[in-house]
């Protein structure tokens, strides 16, 4: 499967006393670059998450957000600590006797007193298994979104490859005829310029120039590179760097084709090829 480096997925998981949320999003990058946004209580889970993501992703700037929202306690879960309540009551009376001007404890003060409802602390260390299970679900959806995007990009690249093949197929048959006509014109000009030069000398000059404008090799390499692009796309996997290299090679052949052109049709074909190659290169920058 061809994957884009652009993707997004988010999921939540209800656990005892709260809800976990994990969000993944990514954009293109030359390398695999992680950015974690995790609350301090869950910081110990960053390394296991990093290891899990690194096993499934090859390239991209990936942002991972992990958060935990504690749920409000239900009424049937609230039980006052009677011993602590009695102690606060006694201490409140004692303070008021010693300091009549002091404000007595309010109901709000008592209910907010640490430990009044028993041990309400959260064991964040126990969040490891549910967080990793949630991460696997998010990763599946995240990879699927990158795969759908990658499939669209691959279709566009194949379409441009076919357009380039059409240009080559249209231009290639015209080149020998055009070169022959241009060679005849060159022979006439050389004969006029050299005057009494021998036919052998004229043929040598024509042969040298014909070699300079021969683009058969460039067209052959263009076709070979296009075959390799399609092969890489069919193979799938992390192929962005390989395809980017092939775009450089295709562009090199298109430039050489333009520089050797002896006819307007080949010059125009070179411009059209470079436009299509650039369109492919821009999209390949987003492939993993």
Write a structural description.
The protein is α+β, with helices and mostly antiparallel strands. It folds into three domains: 7-73 and 125-145; 79-111, no CATH class; 148-284, Four Helix Bundle (Hemerythrin (Met), subunit A). 60% of the residues lie in helices and 13% in strands. It contains nine helices and four strands; from the N terminus they run βββαβαααααααα. The protein has helices spanning 46-56, 82-98, 107-111, 128-171, 174-194, 199-212, 216-235, 240-260, 264-284; strands at 7-15, 18-27, 32-38, 60-70. Strands 1-2-4-3 form a four-stranded mixed beta sheet, covered by helices on one side. Helix 1 (46-56) links the parallel strand 3 (32-38) and strand 4 (60-70). Helix 4 (128-171) packs antiparallel against helix 7 (216-235) and helix 7 runs antiparallel to helix 8 (240-260). The longest helix has 44 residues, at 128-171. It is rod-shaped and about 130 Å long. The termini are close together. 20% of the residues are buried. Residues 72-76 have low confidence and may be disordered.
């Amino acid at each position: 499967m061809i994957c884009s480096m652009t993707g997004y997925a988010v999921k939540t998981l209800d656990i005892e006393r709260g809800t976990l949320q994990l969000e993944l999003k990514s954009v293109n990058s030359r390398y695999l670059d992680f950015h974690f946004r995790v609350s301090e209580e869950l910081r110990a889970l960053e390394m296991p998450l990093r290891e899990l993501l690194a096993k499934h992703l090859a390239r991209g700037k990936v942002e991972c957000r992990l958060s935990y929202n504690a749920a409000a306690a239900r009424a049937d879960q609230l039980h006052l600590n009677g011993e602590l309540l009695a102690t606060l009551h006694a201490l409140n009376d004692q303070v008021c006797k010693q300091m009549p001007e002091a404000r007595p404890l309010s109901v709000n003060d008592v209910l907010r007193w640490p430990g009044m409802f028993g041990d309400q602390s959260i064991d964040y260390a126990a969040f490891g298994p549910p967080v990793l299970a949630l991460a696997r679900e998010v990763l599946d959806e995240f990879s699927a979104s990158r795969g759908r995007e990658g499939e669209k990009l691959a279709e566009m690249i194949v379409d441009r490859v076919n357009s380039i093949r059409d240009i080559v197929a249209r231009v290639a048959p015209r080149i020998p005829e055009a070169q022959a006509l241009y060679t005849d014109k060159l022979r006439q000009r050389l004969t006029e310029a050299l005057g009494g030069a021998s036919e052998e000398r004229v043929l040598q000059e024509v042969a040298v120039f014909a070699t300079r404008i021969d683009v058969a090799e460039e067209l052959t390499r263009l076709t070979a590179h296009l075959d390799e692009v399609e092969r890489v796309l069919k193979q799938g996997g992390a192929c962005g760097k390989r395809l980017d290299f092939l775009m450089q090679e295709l562009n090199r052949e298109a430039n050489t084709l333009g520089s050797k052109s002896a006819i307007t049709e080949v010059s125009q074909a070179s411009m059209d090829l470079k436009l299509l190659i650039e369109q492919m290169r821009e999209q390949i920058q987003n492939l993993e």
